[in-house]
Amino acid sequence: MREDPAAPSSPPVMPNPLREGLAEERLPEPAVMVIFGASGDLAHRKLLPALYSLTRDRLLPGRFAIVGFARKAISDDAFREEMRAACAEFARRRPLDPDLWSAFARNIFYQQGEYEDPAAFFALKDRLADIERTLGLHGNRVFYLATPPSSFASVIRSLGQAELAPKPPPPGAPKPVGAPPPFARVIIEKPFGHDLESARALNLDIHETLDERQIYRIDHYLGKETVQNLLVFRFANGIFEPVWNNRFVDHVQITGAETVGVEARGGYFEQAGSLRDMVQNHLLQVLSLFAMEPPIAFDPDAVRDEKLKVLKALRFIPASDFEQYVVRAQYATGSSAGQAVRGYRQEPNVSATSTTETFVALKLFIDSWRWAGVPFYLRSGKRLPKRVTEIAVHFKEAPHLLFGRRGESIKPNVLAIRIQPDEGIALNFGSKLPGPAMEIAPVSMEFRYGSSFGVEPPEAYERLILDCLLGDTTLFTRADEVEASWAWVSRIHRRWAEDAARQDGGELPTYAAGSWGPPAADKLMTADGRAWRLP
Ligand code: BG6
User: Fold this and answer.
1) Cβ–Cβ contacts within 10 Å for residue 456, how many?
2) How far is ligand 1, taken at its centre, from the CA of residue 163, in Å?
């Protein structure tokens, strides 16, 4: 297949002066990655392109193989051709380098099988042994579950039955003499469960086969550079931590806005809705990194222990004032980028009477010493006017206004952490206007990733796949974190179900596509004397 000549070519890679002299990254051990669901969208758009970009950046070991596993019957060569087209279209580094591609593609293989057929896993085992023998690999394996979630448990059970994923020795066990035993790790895509009960059941099920240390539950938001930078910003700098609490912070707004609608994913979204699709995972993960206490070390369990405490400290939404805390809505017809667009109920595979929310706004409290009394406002929606994900920390006003009426224009300081796009951080503060009078105007001090570092950030999947190969679970969600966030979110779903069951359950509010959500979302803020920031 030919590359698209119109595809944007990679900008020349400039040496980054800020990286000079830094130690080289660690290189993973030789391994095989098996991708279940290899014919799906995720493998095409994200996984293979990420693996290609990692190869191009020399971050994968020289001896590395990829085995695609899916239902359809195709040859190794046909699969390679499909993946070539996918990488040519979606890889961060384009156009493809032909020599590099040939070397990369030589170690791509395809294995046909049904996810529910245990025999297919014995066949896979033979195939892996064969590939490993030929390529001189030592049996390290990563299994990537990019299948529909209904297959997660059975795939893992079959991996166990075929002895493809033996548990590692218990922590503290005496080290074996000679080379360490090969590793077997499993990456599980979202959604991990549909509610608290199903997430618990899935955890129980997979723990029958796997040790928690082998499980990498992926949340691609944790692979975003700017999300990781939250940790660096807070804990590598001395001046922010002292103000990161209820003495200085008035409130925090977290926005995850998208301009796209549900596109071709109506069938999935009907079952999910924005609360499951964006809040239970991505926004609560961002919130927990933002709000957690400093961990005692930068290691996986120390970091995740602190995140878990935040999730466990989320106050359940009070049943009596539910509407003052939670707003949901669905997009109706409207416009996006100047084009008329249809409403959610007219999207393919969406019911004409659907009550699935495509927008949600929430007020929540974290009942901890640090955050007592500070409201966090979260909102996420599809078909909003702008694609932007940001955290805005609104600080309290200065305790005493010195400047009389001239000071009335002073706005409280806002620290805006822009997760995407235009990744960066901006601090807004009041400044004296030049001139003889003591006039004050808001100004902004900005840091932008693009201009400061001169390189594009890697794709989230690149970082997360690499971390898994290196055995680092810090940026993956642990079983207890997932359950804690479901425990909080499932109460909201239960309340919605109760409301819907009542005779006077009421209509789901709508908002015009291309607007910032329903008026009730604004009311949620104005009722507290606040307003959403225009990101
Ligand atoms: C996915 C959701 O997890 O995240 C999508 O299923 C959503 O509905 C996407 O569009 C947003 O990710 P990003 O990286 O584009 O912000």
Assistant:
1) 15
2) 34
DSSP calls for 144-199: EE-S-GGGHHHHHHHHHHTT-SPPPPPTTPPPPSSSPPPPEEEEEPSP--SSHHHH
Q: Active site includes 282?
A: yes
CA distance 383 to 258: 6
Residues whose CB is less than 8 angstroms from the CB of residue 330 and which lie 6 or more positions away in sequence, other chains included = 343, 344, 345, 354, 355, 356, 357, 358, 359, 508, 509, 510, 511
Q: pLDDT value at position 105?
A: 95
Assess whether the C-beta atom of 258 lies below 6 angstroms from ligand 1: yes
Closest atom of ligand 1 relative to the 256 alpha carbon: 16
Residue 277 CB less than 6 A away from ligand 1: yes
Atom of ligand 1 nearest to the CA of 190: 3
| Catalytic option among 282, 394, 400, 493 | 282
* 390 Cβ closer than 6 Å to some ligand 1 atom: no
Separation of alpha carbons 345 and 352, rounded Å? 5
Residue owning the nearest CA to atom 4 of ligand 1: 278
- The Cα–Cα gap between 168 and 145 comes to 20
Measured CA to CA in angstroms, residue 99 lies from 41, 78, 81 at distances of: 26, 19, 15
pLDDT of residue 478: 97
Low-confidence ranges of the chain (pLDDT < 70): 1-25, 404-409, 503-506
Please give the pLDDT value at position 172. Answer: 82
> Could you tell me the pTM of the whole model?
0.92
The gap from C-alpha 289 to its chain's centroid, in whole angstroms, comes to 12
194, 219, 220, best to mutate for ligand 1 pocket (most atoms within 8 Å of CB) = 220
